[in-house]
Amino acid sequence: MCLTETKSCQKWIKDMRAEFIASKKVIGGKFIEDVHFKSPSAAAACVTGGSANGNIMWLYPDGESIKDKAEKK
After folding, report:
1. What are 9-64's pLDDT values in tens digits?
2. Chain centroid to CA 39
3. Using an 8 Å Cβ cutoff, are 2 and 13 in contact?
4. What is the DSSP string of 8-28?
5. Which candidate, 33, 29, 73, 67, places its Cα nearest to that of 49?
6. Distance CA 8, CA 31 (A)
7. Which of 10, 15, 55, 72 lies 20 to 30 angstroms, CA to CA, from 48?
8. CB 47, CB 6: distance < 8 Å
9. How far apart are CA 21 and CA 31, in angstroms?
């Protein structure tokens, strides 16, 4: 997880990140246990410290994004 947040980071992202740090699920910017998110974009926002499109950001081992895989179906 990025240790800094973007200037435009939304409150819900800041709150989520702070909760993970306070509950010791994240220590030193690293997740120390599995965390479940409501969406790929929520996970991406948490990791990057700002708004992010998780459907584009998260890649499978073959290099394709979630969006790429979904478009092939």
Report:
1. 999 999 999 999 999 999 999 999 999 999 999 999 999 999 999 999 999 999 99
2. 9
3. no
4. T--HHHHHHHHHHHHTTSEET
5. 29
6. 23
7. 72
8. no
9. 9
